[in-house]
What we know:
Blueprint: E1 10-20, E2 35-36, H1 44-55, H2 62-65, H3 68-75, E3 80-86, E4 92-99, E5 105-113, H4 122-134, E6 141-147, H5 154-160, E7 164-174
Parallel strand pairs: 5-6
Antiparallel strand pairs: 1-6, 1-7, 2-3, 3-4, 4-5
Amino acid sequence: MALTPVAPGQIATIVTSLQMLRPPAPRPMPASPLRLARWQVPRVAPYRGLFRRVGEPWLWFSRLVMDDAALTAIIADPAVEVLPVIDRAGIELGLLELDFRESGQCELSFVGLVPELTGKGHGRWLMAHALSLAWRKGIERVWVHTCTLDHPAALGFYRKSGFVPFATAVETFADPRLAGVLSAEAAPHVPMIAA
């Protein structure tokens, strides 16, 4: 087996894309004190703040480096639904983003909770809601992707939820911590090797 070197200052990850081609069998909705809201007109600053809170431990940075116009074009598109996860006090603790821009499909663009909620069953609740909202009239495929930078249980969680892997790819990119996009303390499970 050959190893492919990754240049200093870069990160490599294996991305797995998964899909569902039919709705899962009906199940009771898991209980949770959380609820979903809907940002009718998402604004860039609050969106980026929530995106960072949820995704920084996993090196989510794509929406942080987009210019405002490009990000607004996505999150304000009527075919994209941005739903923050909110607790009883109204504090935003998670993000669900559904992208219906491709006919007949729904991409679960972003699904995540703040690290403090990990491992407490709230992910099952969030995925149950995600699937009930994604599978609507005219949808023939729901898909999602994860990578080896995500929570170690992410791939198994998607498979247990009924998704089936259909593609893998290796992605490399400049480490967003070195550029100051994310803090140097983000994602301590991913080595930071400066250029």
